[in-house]
Amino acid sequence: MATFTDLQGKVALVTGASGDIGLAVCEKLLEDGSKVYATYNNNPARLGELADRQEFAGRLVALKCDITNKAELDAAMARIEEAEGKLDVLVNNAGKYRDNLFSMMDFDEFDDVVKTNLYGTFMATKAALRLLRKAKQATVVNVSSIAGLTNSFGQTNYSAAKAGMIGFTRTLAGELGAKGVRVNAVAPGLIESVMTKRVPRNVIRQTLSVIPLQRMGETREVAEAIAFLCSSSSSYVVGQTLVVDGGLIMR
């Protein structure tokens, strides 16, 4: 796996950090030498296990924070500013899903998913912007999904939110590029995680049959793509959505 040495000493904030992808992103950034602030809503024990690793000592700070709550976000940013004075990397990873057929989906199911995935991305970026601009060259990576790029049956709420994140990424990249902040997104496909363990096995088998690589992705592979976009290796990449799906949606 690649090591992005220019991430050494950078200050990163990862939202939704106690989930499978979030945890992998934290681990990757820590391996590359960053100091990582990690927000969570539940399951902090997984972050605690990461923080306890000797090689990461003192470089992982877990923050309980609801990214849809402005007061909690402001408190998190104040803590980062007091300790670090800037923010080099923001990874908007927090998200949720509540699948249902559109004919059966109620307003709360739609609103809840859009609020966390899309509004949460807006709110976290808005709260972090001043600190990002204090860094010489900052990066924002939004974790979208292939659901935002193609049909995703039973996920009108999730697809709308993730598609919105892609549009948000492109437009924000145009606004912030000249201000020293690069903005990009990743769109993971079928990734082995708690989420995919809930998918019926026959659906998994059917999906695998049309993936050229014939397997699910690993969270580590998504984290590598995100680290690339956070690093100077992608210094001329702006406003793009990097698809990490084994070729699933190219068919």
From TrEMBL:
Q: Which UniProt keywords apply?
A: Coiled coil, Oxidoreductase
> What Gene3D superfamilies is this protein classified in?
NAD(P)-binding Rossmann-like Domain
Q: What is its EC number?
A: 1.3.1.58
Looking at the record, the residues that make up the Ketoreductase domain are 10-191
Q: Cite the annotated pathway.
A: Aromatic compound metabolism; p-cumate degradation; acetaldehyde and pyruvate from p-cumate: step 2/7
InterPro entries xrefs: KR_dom, NAD(P)-bd_dom_sf, Sc_DH/Rdtase_CS, SDR, SDR_fam
Q: Which residues cross the membrane?
A: none
* EC supergroup of this enzyme: oxidoreductase
- Top-level lineage group: Bacteria
- Tell me the Gene Ontology biological-process terms attached to this UniProt entry: monocarboxylic acid metabolic process
Q: What reaction does this catalyse?
A: (2R,3S)-2,3-dihydroxy-2,3-dihydro-p-cumate + NAD(+) = 2,3-dihydroxy-p-cumate + NADH + H(+)
Coiled coil residues, start to end: 73-100
* Matches recorded under Pfam families: adh_short_C2 (PF13561)
GO molecular function terms listed in the Swiss-Prot or TrEMBL record:
2,3-dihydroxy-2,3-dihydro-p-cumate dehydrogenase activity
Q: Which PANTHER family match?
A: 3-OXOACYL-(ACYL-CARRIER-PROTEIN) REDUCTASE, 3-OXOACYL-[ACYL-CARRIER-PROTEIN] REDUCTASE FABG
The entry sums up its family as follows: Belongs to the short-chain dehydrogenases/reductases (SDR) family.
Q: What is this protein called?
A: 2,3-dihydroxy-2,3-dihydro-p-cumate dehydrogenase
Source species of the chain: Aquipseudomonas alcaligenes
